[in-house]
Specification:
By secondary structure, this protein is an all-alpha fold. It folds into two domains: 56 residues, Arc Repressor Mutant, subunit A (Orthogonal Bundle), CATH 1.10.10.60; 117 residues, no CATH class. The chain contains ten helices and no strands. The mean pLDDT is 90.
């Protein structure tokens, strides 16, 4: 369905309302009617633009990791720069509520799991391919990188493990950097 510029404010209000409610009540506790009320529109408008709750959820958590072009990064700085990028995306100058919302939702919702897979399977893999090329190791490296960053994000923002929450952003990035560097450039066969 093609949308006009006139519909953009309504669609933006619906997505903002959906994000607020999803963050507060989770996927299961968020309804189309509640989102419509939050956005100040009729529920039929939500259905018109997003078809159903799953479509609304997917649009509301359409996460862009905002990766810069990594192809010109010095090889020895890849882990540090990538770690700092993720921390900035989670809580720095690039942050928004989407990553936390998606993480919280993925704990209990299959649609959120699929969305995380799509984001990390697509965007992270593209960034890793800029570093290591399109060889067979790229997918493994991207997957291992995802385990690191998603694990840290889950422990910091969802489970709120006190030692991980207590770290300042620089310390967090410095702790993640060597592991990310290994996943990007290390000998993965040596670990087996």
């Amino acid at each position: 369905m093609a949308f006009t510029a006139r519909s953009e404010p309504t669609r933006a209000a619906i997505l903002a309302g959906a994000r607020r409610l999803l963050a507060e009540k989770g996927y299961e506790g968020t309804t189309i009617r509640a989102v419509a009320a939050e956005a100040g529109v009729d529920a039929s408008m939500v259905m018109r633009y997003y078809t159903n709750k799953a479509g609304l959820f997917t649009a509301a958590v359409d996460l862009d990791l905002q990766f810069p072009d990594t192809s010109d990064w010095p090889r020895e700085e890849l882990g540090e720069r990538m770690a700092r990028h993720f921390v900035a995306r989670w809580e720095g100058e690039l942050s928004d509520e989407l990553i936390r919302l998606l993480l919280r939702s993925a704990v209990t919702n299959a649609a959120a799991v699929e969305q995380l897979r799509a984001v990390f399977g697509g965007q992270v893999l593209r960034a890793v391919r800029q570093v290591v090329g399109d060889g067979p190791e790229a997918s493994c490296r991207a997957s291992m990188l995802a385990t690191q960053v998603l694990g840290v994000a889950l422990c910091r923002y969802v489970l709120e493990l006190p030692p991980v929450v207590a770290m300042d952003a620089d310390t967090l990035a410095s702790m993640m950097a060597p592991v990310i560097q290994h996943y990007l450039t290390g000998d993965l066969a040596a670990a087996v």
